[in-house]
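User: Assemble these into one structure.

Assistant: Restating your components, then the assembled model:
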Amino acid sequence: MSWAAHDLEPYVIQKHLGRKVAFMPLLAGSYAPDILTKWFVYGVGFFGFEAKASNPAQFHRGWPGVGFTHSLVFGVVLALIIYRVWGSPVVAYSFLIGQWAHALTDMGDTVGTMLFFPFSTHLFSIGAWAYAGELGRQVDAGAYFSGLGFAWDGVWVLWACLSWQVLTRDYFRREVIVGDPFYRWADKTLSEPLMLAVYRAAFFYGVCRWVAWTVWAHWIAGGASFNGKRYNFKLDLSWGGPHWVHGVQASTVNTAGCRCPCCRAAQRQLAAYGFLVLCVRVKKLRQRLGPDAIQGARDGASTGPLQGRPRLRRGSPRSGRSRSGRRSTPARTTAPGDRSPPGR
Amino acid sequence: MRTLMLYAAAGVSYTVLGIYNQNFLYSFFEGLAFLCAFVVGVPWVVKRLWGGRKIGP
């Protein structure tokens, strides 16, 4: 997981793509994989009752679990739904870019992400820093800001600061409002200082969070306890570190397949859906080629390439079939005033 | 420059608040609420208070 990268990536992407993307969907896409699930990883207490995943890494990144939120297909599905509802391709692909950026960034830890779910539950992981979500929020933060995750977020903080032009009022007026339907809509009701505050909030939050957690981990607390065990936040920038914490590895997630009938049936259903999609594609391909083309190919194969009929594509003038699939009328060869049937 | 100083002050305040109690750093929405309150809400309140008061004779 990344602590500040998801807040800062949209500004860097915005800097490079300008009006080609809409900022608010980009930010929503960047937050989408974690926004409804992260609280259950660390647990939340209310009225003396605590809700927490029994296996946070499995829940957060695995299957069974909500690991599918970190897959590329999940982004495509949500983008298609957004496109269907909103009708704007810019909004849809901006969201998709944000979600893919999140999924790819989270590959950096030792658990990784199921990028190609539902086709595969393999976790793609670089393993640069330890995943310690199961040890609670404070120890996880201490581990993250003691390992290479701290440096990784530092890169994004620096990159976002170098893209400071995107935070200016002129840029906001010139590029963001023009490219983003949300801000165009908000421009009718909200004041500009408020819109600018909303626009800059993720940058503000990402940078402040990176500084605050680093200061807290290394200068204020220096360590934290979880389930009676004390963890001292010693800086360890080695690969896969910090090694004072037992980071969950990708090989230990998804090892126990769920034996429930629902999950076992899901695999067969996915195979059936895949076969159905393949059949539909083949059928469409045959329709695209058309009976003339297939017959021509058969004749060409039986009589030789010089004697066979030429291969006619749908929509070509000689095929007699328009691109819409309807049989077209022959072209008139006579003058418009001539009442005689064409071609006679 | 005045706006930049306001944002810088908001950043320092929020960072200190986050170090003091990490629950203020919980999610983006806490940061959004704090920033909006600091750079929009506080100037609005100050303007309202100072607007009704006459300074000098």
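The two ends of chain A are 77 Å apart (CA to CA).
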